[in-house]
Amino acid sequence: MSLFLALAAAVAVSAPAATPAAAPAKTAAPKAAAAPPAAVNVAQPTPVNERVAELMALDKRTGKSQGFAIKAGQQLAFGSLLIRMRACETTPEWEQKQTAAFLQIDEVTSATARKRVYSGWMFAESPSLNPLQNPRYDVWVKSCTMSFPATGPDTVVASRAGPGDKTSGDPKRASSAPKSPAPATADANSPR
């Protein structure tokens, strides 16, 4: 849940981050210049503007329901509702499934007037946690399509074959553990 709370705060505060003031120059003589850290090329999750949320809407009076696929920043109409999705999130497949979308829903009351009836995160796994409370319409989140990198900078890939095996011949990666004694070979004529 903390992921979604952090995202809610990030969406709510859309002002650009303040840039830190430049530090005053030091008067001491510079020491040997250190090499800049090597850039790490890490794949990132799908950017927010490329994520697609699937929503469902229901008109309780007519019984009409409709599914929608919507990207961040897009707006769609259902009955007298205007639904805008600002962001959607889902957890990676290796974590417990949680999906949410930040929606802003307006109800058109006349040709020129709108009334905001909902603004917040809706959760697919807990639709009653933060629902649209409207006597005529229901809107809920079904999914958010996004991908995650398979590996990151701290990923350890374990395999049976490769560097460090006895067959690889790489002494730097060989184990430093003491070797087990070789099993005694049985004589072909000895009883078992």
Rounded mean pLDDT is 74
Quick one: overall form?
elongated
> Which structural class do you get from the secondary structure elements?
mainly beta
Can you tell me the residue ranges where pLDDT is under 50 for at least 5 consecutive residues?
Answer: 1-42
Portion in strands? 25-35%
Number of DSSP helical runs: 1
* Widest beta sheet: strand line-up: 3-4-5-6
* SSE pattern: HEEEEEEE
User: Termini, distance in Å?
Assistant: 63 Å
Question: Sheet with the most strands?
Answer: 4 strands, antiparallel
Based on CA atoms alone, the radius of gyration comes out at 29 Å
Give the helix level as a range of percent.
under 10%
Strand count: 7
